[in-house]
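Batch job 17 of 40 flagged for manual review because the log was empty.
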Amino acid sequence: MHELSEPYASHFPPLLAAALAEDLPDLTGPAVFGPDETVTAALVVKAPGVLAGMPAFGAAFEFLDVRCRVEALRGDGDAVRAGDEAARVQGPARAVLAAERTALNVVTRLSGVATLTRRFVDAVAGTPCKILDTRKTTPGWRALEKHAVRCGGGSNHRMGLYDAAMLKDTHLAAAGSITAAVSCVRERWGGGVTLVVECADLAMVEEALACKVGHIMLDNMDLAEVRGAVALVAGRARLEVSGGVTLATVRGFAEAGADFISVGALTHSAPALDLSLKVRS
């Protein structure tokens, strides 16, 4: 189970406030239930996967009504199977059913990210290669989605532009060359920041090596090109494979010698894990 980090938890109030504001006021619950009627419900798993976002799931009910009580039976990072109960919710019926969709939206989305990440991590098992995420996240959800990647066994690459100086094709085109762009970064920051350079072919890899770049991203290279880059670099820099990597191709890149494989799909294309809230009484 993954511990709840403070940066992750601090995103709950604004996210939940905005999400609940999209739904409320509720016309149905107050018409059906009295103010003191209570209900008990269970979070039921309908497909195998990895959980993430369980604290946020519970917080949605408590945010709407402090009388709600959520008992987590499984936690973030736990593997679950269809039929498992992941949590139980008890509280005023109006609040539980009004918060249901918001709570499910958060936990199904984040669990989907964790589940897809675990599949990529399992696909490279036995190699030293690490699976990384990217900044291709849902606006406002980055801390939560990157937490979900960690729950699935992946590693966070950059939380934002402030984590490293990454020279991508757009920077290189504007600067004129890798050498010129690297010189600009080092002149501005010295050796105080991590420097990553994106390379689209072996000639660019050679230029990055000549600049003594320690982290080279191999952008949209095929397996043969990645093998060539690994041979050329020969341990002088860390190599990251990026662009179009799938579950069918990821192991080949790992076995070719990549240190890292970054996969934007972990956060921009992960299908939601099928979970539902079932009233028990």
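Reviewer: the log was empty due to a logging misconfiguration, but the result itself is present. The longest helix spans residues 93-123. Unflagging and moving on to job 18.
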